[in-house]
Amino acid sequence: MDNNSIRIPLDLPDVRVLEVSKTDQGAWLIRVESTLNGTHCHQCGREITHFHSVESAIRLRHLPLFEMPVFIELRPKRYRCPFCEGKPTTTQRLSWHELRSPNTKPYEQWLLRMLINSTVADVARKLTISEETVAGVLKRWVSPQVDWAEFDQIEVVGIDEIALKRGHRDYITLVSVPLMPRGVEIVAILADRKKQTVANFFNSIPSRLKGGIKRVCTDMYQGFVAAAVLQLPEVKIVVDRFHVAKAYRACADTVRKHEVNRLKQDLSPEAYQQIKGAMWPFRKAPDDLNDDEWALLERLFTYSPKLEKAYTLREELTEIFERAYTKTGAKCAIRAWCKRVRKSELDEFESFLGTVDTWLDKITNYFLDGWSSGFVEGFNNRVKVLKRRCYGIFDVERIFQRLTLDINGYERFGYT
Ligand SMILES: [Zn+2]
C-alpha cells in the first residue's frame, strides 16, 4: 500500500467487503456479502437457515466518499422454509437496507437531512440524482398524514389559511398544534378552507384527544369558526392577536399611503425630501426606533397630524394586548380604544371597527388564560415560516411531509 492511501471502515453491519473498484463513471463500487446465516420466513415468521440460493446482484447508492458516488453491490441470500407448505423461500434482509429501496438507509437519512429547509429540486441537483429519487426517499420515510398515536394530549389547535400563490384565490388550510414551551407540530394540511373540510378533519381526531382540546386559535374566518363550533362545541375559540394586529396595522398603513400621497402634492420638493423614507420607521414600535428614525417620524408628524394619530392609535392597541388584562378588562379597554378611533375621524380604520364589533368576544378570549405573548408570537412566527415554505407545492400530502421534515427532521434523521 502506498503512503498516499487511507483505510476506513465501511460501517455497515453484517457484511464483509469482497472487493472495491471504480466504475467507468468514476464511482466507487464496493462489493459485499452478508455474514449472517438465515432469515425469518415471510409466511410463518420462524427462523430458517436452509440456504436456497443467492439472487442476482443489486447496486445500492451509499454515502459518497470524497464527493465521489459510492455504490454497494450485494447478492442477497435466499432461504427455504422447511415448515411451511410448498417450502417457500425468503430473501434475507439486512438492517441497513429497506426492501425495494435503491439506496442504503444511511444514504437516505443523509438525503433527508439535506432536504430539511430545502427543496426537492435543490437536493436533486446537489446530489446529482433525479427529483423522483428524492421524492421517493421522502415518501419512504415521512408519512403524508399525522400519526395520532404520537400524541398523548392536545389542548390547543391552531388553524391557518395559506394562499398557495401570492394573490391567488386557492387556499389550503394548515392545522397545527403548538407545543410548550416552543415549537409546533403540523397535524394536517387540508386541500381547501371550506367549513365542511375543516369539520371533517376535526371529526377525524380520535375522541380521546378530541375531548381534551380546550382552545382553537384561528384567523377571523367564519368557515373555521363554524367548523370548530360544529365539531368541538365545548372549545373556546380564540382569534389570534397577530391576525388582529395585521388588520389594524393595515389600516394605519392605508393612512400612511394617503397622507404620503397628499404630502407629495402639497409640499415643495425640498420639504418632501425631508420626510422620504419614513415608511419603515412608521411601521416600527417606538421602542425599536433609533434617534434618526425618531427625528424622521417627528418631521413627518409635523406635516401630518393625522399620521401621528394613526401611529398612536395603532401602538395603543398593541399595548392593550401586551398587558395582563382579564377578558372583561380587555373588552373595556378595546371598546374605549374604538371610541377614540371614532373621535379621530380616521376613515381608514372604519373596516377594523366593524371587525371588532363582530369578533370582540373571540378576540378577547386571548386574555382568558394568561398565555405569554412570547409563546404565542413564537408559535406564530413558526407557522409563518412554515406557510412560506408551502409556496409552489400543490400537493397537500407533499406539503405535510415537507413541513414535518422541516420541523422534526434533525431529531428523526440527525446524527446520533
Ligand atoms: Zn415458514
Number of individual domains: 3
CATH class of the largest domain: Alpha Beta
Gyration radius, to the nearest Å? 30 Å
Briefly note the structural class of the backbone: alpha+beta
Helical segment tally? 15
Order of helices and strands: EEEEEEEEEHHHEEEHHEHEHHHHHHHHH
Assign a percent range to the helix content.
40-55%
Number of strands: 14
What fraction of residues sit in β-strands? Answer: 15-25%
CATH homolog superfamily of the largest domain: Ribonuclease H-like superfamily/Ribonuclease H
The unreliable regions are: none
**Largest beta-sheet characterization:** 5 strands, mixed
CATH architecture of the largest domain: 2-Layer Sandwich
Q: The CATH topology of the largest domain, please?
A: Nucleotidyltransferase, domain 5
> Could you say which small molecules are bound to this protein?
zinc ion
Nearest-integer average pLDDT: 91
Task: Tell me the distance between the termini.
Answer: 33 Å
Question: Could you give the topology of this structure?
Answer:
Blueprint: E1 15-22, E2 28-34, E3 39-40, E4 47-48, E5 50-54, E6 58-65, E7 68-74, E8 77-80, E9 89-91, H1 105-115, H2 120-126, H3 131-141, E10 156-163, E11 171-178, E12 184-190, H4 195-204, H5 207-210, E13 215-218, H6 222-231, E14 236-239, H7 241-266, H8 269-274, H9 279-283, H10 291-303, H11 305-322, H12 327-344, H13 350-364, H14 373-389, H15 396-413
Parallel strand pairs: 2-7, 10-13, 13-14
Antiparallel strand pairs: 1-2, 3-4, 5-8, 6-7, 8-9, 10-11, 11-12
Helix pairs in contact: 1-15, 2-3, 4-6, 7-11, 7-13, 10-11, 11-12, 12-13
The structure holds zinc ion.
Residues 41, 43-44, 46, 81, 83-84 line the site of zinc ion.
